[in-house]
């Protein structure tokens, strides 16, 4: 099928005759002549990478990935394996969506722009905040961007960013990198029962704080019950209240705008992507007063020459390709296609499906925790809090050994410390949960 | 060639929003203890969802579209029809490397074995780790680098890693530096990234030939220089022929040389950044290695560094396991490790894994010869197209892209009119070194016939009257969109449309 260029790129359609004719038009003898590279830096070696047929390449990758153990994952802590309906794959994989780029020419990109506008609208509804951008990379980088927004916001001054002591390492380190070029310093505040310790937070909040960050549910699966007070503490000190959550949780839990959140960040790929080794979709929403400080791309409605409503990227003077070193962020390529997937998944569920999915996350986490608690040698949940999607278990056996034994039986859980494991029920079927509980009984015996 | 894009209209407007097709309001209520009420029951127009949590921990209601699967299939299919893509036609957006994206890489990314959680222990995800290891190795060879991280989720994120690594390197040497030098013609992300990293940006003018002005560089360099960020070939498509001298000058003041990989598609198999003296580089796998651009992303921006900088890379990286964890059967096993002086993580997990997987498949498919051929044909195509179009193309000799000038015409209007001829226009009005710039990168995937069609589009527009250009496009789904209104009265969600 690839004719005479079987030793070249299969995706370069030139015949030898074409290439010769093109060279003649250019007035060159050979393609090599077109490269204006000094002799001293020319590469005349080999990469040593063999070319393969499509079939061979697929087999190669299949063979490598087959080395992954087939396990039922009861894993969460920020990355969740919700079932993604087939419809999402088939619609998002339409090549017009998959193989277009940033909508620099809105007139010929109305479809994708509308889909992103709808994604932004979904987040506005979920958060109650007036502005949502059309994606950051993931929750960790969105958190970093929130800190730099807090640093720029004219209403705020100071140098301290407060985060919970249970914040996931990846998020904390990413945040640290984002603020490395500013005067901001990250400090931890204590937690109790895997949620904010209000007294501990109050001790640390002062006029020098630019931002207080909290998450609901927390990384240990607990629902925060006193967010309004966290918001009051932050605003009392003139700091921004940044709340971490996700679209499934937000379908049921308190609306961020109602608890005083100034910015909402999180991972929106809980919808639409499924388990993907941590690939994400950074959710970023904020109040309208911070509109000019928002990082990333925004889709807005306008009118076209036919006086009809049409969509376009807007407020681009915030962005790097216009504002350069004074841009609100360095982001260019984002996660637009994941946002599309997330929006399709949400639309497929509808508001009742979304809220039900969230409610089920509470019911299942709490009922499975209760069943785990019935097993000798295990205590669950560890925290006296309402649970969402996942929970921590205290174990008399060494947690790492327990995790390894569960792994041998085909179940993956988190080992948090010597005596704690964490289990997530977001993606598991009822049958898998039953199998997991049976395996837990075996390994604790 | 003439193009009429699909255009769905209803009641004098284009395809309605999801929320205009249906908006269902659900009430969320704690009904625990109550009897006789089923979850999801409807009371009049309002559906109630039964909450296991008390009312004070939940929202009151949620109003979103509630459409059926067939309705959604039509909605999104129509939206796709109103979206121009590389599978629709030529997409010569300069510096974006809009290659055709091989379909088989989608199948590879959809393999069930690829869907693993990032917190799985190394021993249970050997396949994923092996693939990461092999891709690190491929990229190191292609760039002439010693060590690679796959974590940065996009090109700009890769730049940020480069700048953070440079900071860590200088700090480790007890050497605080305050400036990053960026050529005026560089990608906007370079300036923004350097600023995000806390550096003052020193802008470097080009010389008359469109390359780095060595005199200006000499003047800009000092003990304060943390790094020079450079794209090679630059945004005019010109190879920086003095690259070795530039590297020597930067290194002489103790600075690092950063390679912006956006234009690497010009050089595969012909030259490697590592051999030119670059210390750190990023790869744009969504450009060079043909992973789909997805309407703006996701991409991936792995970073390669020289041996000297390897210990600063983000954690974790993947290596072959030695000692006790090695497999006695001889099959290599892989482990994660934290580089000793790591800057820490720049993404919550390991970056855009599914994109990296597609890039691996592309590289493994093409091999040495395919990769070199991709660059050869990309350069052939750019040179051929530049020859065929009637707009002036200053500077040269260029490689994978060129910047034409629309002359007396407005480049933005030229772009709008080109849409009517079934081609995506070039990047416009940038770099500013060329007036009314049309920055054009056809990539290797266009055939001669396709390039002829592109040239015809350019040349037809070049001969058209100003008023034709100003009122274009006419054949796309929407007509010319009013940017001023969009920015002055931001309406950023369907909630804002009634205002």
UniProtKB/TrEMBL annotation, chain A:
**Presence of keyword Oxidoreductase:** yes
For whether the record's keyword set contains Oxidoreductase, the answer is yes
| Keywords per UniProt | Oxidoreductase
Residues of the Glycine cleavage system P-protein N-terminal domain: 11-421
Q: Which InterPro entries match?
A: GcvPA, GDC-P_N, PyrdxlP-dep_Trfase, PyrdxlP-dep_Trfase_major, PyrdxlP-dep_Trfase_small
E.C. designation(s): 1.4.4.2
Q: Which GO terms describe its molecular function?
A: glycine dehydrogenase (decarboxylating) activity
NCBIfam families for the chain: PRK00451.1 (NF001696)
Stated name of the protein: Aminomethyl-transferring glycine dehydrogenase subunit GcvPA
Automatic annotation (TrEMBL), chain B:
EC number of the protein: 1.4.4.2
Q: Does the keyword Oxidoreductase apply?
A: yes
Using the record's annotation, list all stretches that form the Aminotransferase class V domain: 165-294
> Annotated region Disordered: where?
22-54, 319-339, 466-499
* Basic and acidic residues: bias regions: 22-32
Among SUPFAM superfamilies, the record links this protein to: PLP-dependent transferases
Q: Please name one Pfam family that this protein belongs to.
A: GcvP2_C
- Which residues are in the Glycine dehydrogenase C-terminal domain? 374-471
Its top-level enzyme class, in one word, is oxidoreductase
What keywords appear on the UniProt entry?
Oxidoreductase, Pyridoxal phosphate
One GO molecular-function entry: glycine dehydrogenase (decarboxylating) activity
Q: Which domain of life is it from?
A: Archaea
Q: Which reaction does it catalyse?
A: N(6)-[(R)-lipoyl]-L-lysyl-[glycine-cleavage complex H protein] + glycine + H(+) = N(6)-[(R)-S(8)-aminomethyldihydrolipoyl]-L-lysyl-[glycine-cleavage complex H protein] + CO2
Q: Does the keyword Oxidoreductase apply?
A: yes
Q: Which NCBIfam families match?
A: PRK04366.1 (NF003346)
Q: What is this protein called?
A: glycine dehydrogenase (aminomethyl-transferring)
Q: What organism is recorded for this protein? A: Saliphagus infecundisoli
Q: What is the lineage of its organism?
A: Archaea, Methanobacteriati, Methanobacteriota, Stenosarchaea group, Halobacteria
């Amino acid at each position: 099928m690839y004719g005479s260029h079987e030793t070249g790129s299969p995706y370069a359609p030139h015949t030898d005759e074409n290439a010769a004719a093109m060279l003649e038009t250019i007035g060159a003898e050979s393609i090599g002549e077109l490269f204006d590279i000094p002799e001293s830096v020319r590469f005349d070696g080999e990469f040593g990478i063999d070319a393969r047929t499509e079939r061979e390449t697929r087999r190669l990758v299949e063979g490598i990935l087959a080395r992954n153990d087939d396990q039922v994952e009861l894993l969460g802590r920020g990355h969740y394996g919700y079932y993604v309906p087939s419809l999402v794959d088939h619609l998002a994989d339409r090549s017009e969506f998959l193989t277009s780029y940033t909508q620099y020419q809105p007139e010929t990109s109305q479809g994708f722009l509308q889909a992103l506008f709808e994604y932004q609208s979904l987040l506005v509804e979920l958060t109650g905040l007036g502005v949502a951008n059309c994606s950051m990379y993931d929750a960790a980088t969105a958190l970093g961007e929130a800190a730099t927004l807090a640093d720029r916001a004219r209403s705020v001054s100071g140098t301290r960013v407060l985060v919970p002591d249970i914040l996931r390492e990846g998020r904390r380190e990413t945040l640290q990198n984002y603020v490395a070029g500013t005067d901001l310093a990250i400090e931890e505040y204590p937690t109790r029962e895997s949620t904010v310790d209000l007294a501990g937070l109050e001790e640390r909040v002062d006029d020098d704080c630019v931002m207080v960050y909290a998450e609901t549910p927390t990384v240990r699966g607990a629902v925060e019950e006193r967010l309004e007070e966290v918001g009051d503490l932050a605003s009392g000190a003139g700091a921004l209240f940044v709340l971490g959550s996700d679209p499934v949780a937000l379908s049921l839990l308190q609306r961020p705008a109602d608890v005083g959140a100034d910015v909402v960040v999180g991972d929106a790929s809980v919808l639409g992507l499924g388990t993907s080794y941590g690939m994400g979709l950074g959710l970023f929403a904020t109040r309208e007063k911070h509109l000019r400080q928002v990082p990333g791309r925004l889709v807005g409605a306008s009118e076209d020459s036919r006086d009809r409503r049409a969509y376009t990227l807007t407020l681009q003077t915030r962005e790097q390709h216009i504002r350069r070193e004074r841009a609100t962020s360095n982001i260019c390529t984002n996660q637009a296609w994941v946002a599309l997937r997330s929006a399709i998944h949400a639309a497929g569920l509808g508001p009742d499906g979304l809220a039900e999915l969230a409610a089920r996350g509470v019911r299942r986490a709490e009922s499975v925790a209760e069943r785990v608690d019935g097993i000798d040698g295990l205590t669950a949940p560890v925290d006296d809090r309402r649970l969402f999607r996942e929970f921590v278990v205290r174990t008399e056996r060494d947690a790492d050994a327990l995790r390894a034994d569960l792994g041998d039986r085909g179940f993956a859980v988190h080992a948090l410390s010597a005596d704690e494991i964490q289990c997530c029920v977001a993606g598991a079927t009822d049958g898998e949960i039953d199998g997991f509980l049976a395996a837990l009984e075996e390994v604790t015996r | 060639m003439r193009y009429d894009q699909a255009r769905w209209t209803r009641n004098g407007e284009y395809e309605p929003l999801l929320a205009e097709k249906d908006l269902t309001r659900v009430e969320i209520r704690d009904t625990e203890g109550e009897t006789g009420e089923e979850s999801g029951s409807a009371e009049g127009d309002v559906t109630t969802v039964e909450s296991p949590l008390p009312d004070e921990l939940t929202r009151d209601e949620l109003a979103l579209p509630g459409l059926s699967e067939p309705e959604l299939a039509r909605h999104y299919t129509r939206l796709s029809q109103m979206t121009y893509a590389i599978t629709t036609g030529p997409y010569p957006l300069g510096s974006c490397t809009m290659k055709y994206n091989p379909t088989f890489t989608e199948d590879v990314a959809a393999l069930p074995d690829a869907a693993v959680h990032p917190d799985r222990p190394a021993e249970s995800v050997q396949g994923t780790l092996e693939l990461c290891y092999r891709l690190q190795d491929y990229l190191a060879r292609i760039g002439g680098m010693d060590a690679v991280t796959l974590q940065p989720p996009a090109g700009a994120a890769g730049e940020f890693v480069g700048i953070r690594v440079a900071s860590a390197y200088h700090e480790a040497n007890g050497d605080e530096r305050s400036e990053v030098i960026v050529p005026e013609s560089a990608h906007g992300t370079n300036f923004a990234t350097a600023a995000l990293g806390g550096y003052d940006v020193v802008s470097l003018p080009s010389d008359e030939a469109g390359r780095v002005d060595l005199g200006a560089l000499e003047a800009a360099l000092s003990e304060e220089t943390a790094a020079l960020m450079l794209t090679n070939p630059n945004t005019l498509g010109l190879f920086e022929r003095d690259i070795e001298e530039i590297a020597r000058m930067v290194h002489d003041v103790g600075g690092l040389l950063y390679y912006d990989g956006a234009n690497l598609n010009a050089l595969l198999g012909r030259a490697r950044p590592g051999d030119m003296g670059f210390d750190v580089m990023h790869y744009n796998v969504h450009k060079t290695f043909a992973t789909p651009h997805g309407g703006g992303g996701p991409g991936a921006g792995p970073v390669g560094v020289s041996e000297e900088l390897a210990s600063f890379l983000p954690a974790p990286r993947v290596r072959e396991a030695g000692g006790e964890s090695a497999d006695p059967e001889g099959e290599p096993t892989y482990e994660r490790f934290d580089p000793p002086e790591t800057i820490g993580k720049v993404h919550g997990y390991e970056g855009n894994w599914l994109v990296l997987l597609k890039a691996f498949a592309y590289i493994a498919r093409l091999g040495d010869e395919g990769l070199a051929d991709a660059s050869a044909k990309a350069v052939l195509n750019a040179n051929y197209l530049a020859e065929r179009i009637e707009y002036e193309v200053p500077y040269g000799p260029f490689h994978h892209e060129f910047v034409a000038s629309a002359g007396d015409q407005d480049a933005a209007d030229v772009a709008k009119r080109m849409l009517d001829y079934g081609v995506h226009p070039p990047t416009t009005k940038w770099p500013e070194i060329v007036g009314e710039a049309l920055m054009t990168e056809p990539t290797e995937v266009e055939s001669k016939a396709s390039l002829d069609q592109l040239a015809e589009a350019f040349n037809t527009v070049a001969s058209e009257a100003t008023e034709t250009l100003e009122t274009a496009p006419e054949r796309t789904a929407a007509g010319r969109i009013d940017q001023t209104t969009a920015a002055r009265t931001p309406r950023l969600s369907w909630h804002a449309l009634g205002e």
